[in-house]
């Protein structure tokens, strides 16, 4: 009886999450803009790299040491190309971080009815940088430890990605409520360890995802371009809905244990 009442409550909240308003469309549009901006950055990066590498065509790297002055010039060209590659790559990562933080920040402020500010953008960008570096370090440490059994490392990385996905949703909700980086990270792990409270919501999310994919099989009979377009629209809608739903779940749990007032 207790489980039945719990399920009814979770089911009711799950159904209530589909009462979407105009904000739902705005979130999808912001996601589209984020993807578009990232694609443009990638395109610019590839063009710059192409211009950077073109002078290396026909360069003989095997005999640089025995080619005298010409070899020295080619060595300088190669060195400058490597420096250029590192600079362009660093700039790409910085701009991607800013673009991602800008649009995701706008999205979470919209969902949680908060005011987006430059202060928030700066802290949110720093939060994302810290968060990415933290998990990269863990992945690298695991690689060093398990370098001789790479298949185990690959499996652990997949598990790590699931953990990151699970915790990041909590992190963004808590941070947007508090705008305190280290407190948000600490609270994220404290809330995230209460996994039993998230099992039912995520089972419902998984169930919806499976149902949507089964429905999309019907569209596979259409031309491939139409099928891919429909898939993209449904995926963007699903991700947007998920944010609204999981933010309510996180807020409910965070308030219950007084991480958020």
Cα-atom radius of gyration: 24 Å
Q: Quick one: biggest sheet?
A: none
Mean pLDDT: 91
Net shape? globular
Tally of helical runs: 8
Q: Please state the oligomeric state of the protein chains shown.
A: single chain
Write the SSE topology.
Elements: H1 2-16, H2 22-53, H3 68-111, H4 118-145, H5 150-178, H6 181-192, H7 196-219, H8 224-256
Would you write up a description of this structure?
The protein is mainly α and 261 residues long. It has a domain at 21-111. The chain is 83% helix and 0% strand. It has 8 helices and no strands. The protein has helices at residues 2-16, 22-53, 68-111, 118-145, 150-178, 181-192, 196-219, 224-256. α4 (118-145) packs antiparallel against α5. It starts with a helix and ends in a 5-residue tail after the last helix. The model has no long low-confidence stretch (mean pLDDT 91).
């Amino acid at each position: 009886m207790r489980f039945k009442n719990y399920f009814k409550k979770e089911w009711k909240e799950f159904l209530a999450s589909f009462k979407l308003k105009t904000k739902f469309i705005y979130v999808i549009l912001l996601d589209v803009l984020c993807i578009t901006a990232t694609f443009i950055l990638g395109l610019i990066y590839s063009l710059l790299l192409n211009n950077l590498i073109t002078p290396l065509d026909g360069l003989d790297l095997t005999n640089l040491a025995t080619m005298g002055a010409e070899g020295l010039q080619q060595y300088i060209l190669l060195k400058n190309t490597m420096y250029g590659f590192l600079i362009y790559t660093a700039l790409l990562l910085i701009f991607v971080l800013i673009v991602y933080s800008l649009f995701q920040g706008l999205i979470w402020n919209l969902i949680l009815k908060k005011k987006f500010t430059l202060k928030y953008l700066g802290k949110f960008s720093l939060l994302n940088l810290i968060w990415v570096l933290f998990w990269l370090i863990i992945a690298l440490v695991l690689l060093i430890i398990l370098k001789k059994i790479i298949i185990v490392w690959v499996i652990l990385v997949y598990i790590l990605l699931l953990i990151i996905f699970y915790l990041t949703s909590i992190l963004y909700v808590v941070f947007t409520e508090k705008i305190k980086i280290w407190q948000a990270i600490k609270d994220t792990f404290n809330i995230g360890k209460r996994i039993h409270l998230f099992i039912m919501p995520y089972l419902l999310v998984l169930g919806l995802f499976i149902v949507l994919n089964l429905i999309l099989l019907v569209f596979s009979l259409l031309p491939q371009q139409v099928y891919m377009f429909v898939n993209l629209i449904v995926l963007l809608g699903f991700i947007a809905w998920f944010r609204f739903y999981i933010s309510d779940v996180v807020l409910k749990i965070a308030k219950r244990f007084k991480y958020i007032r």
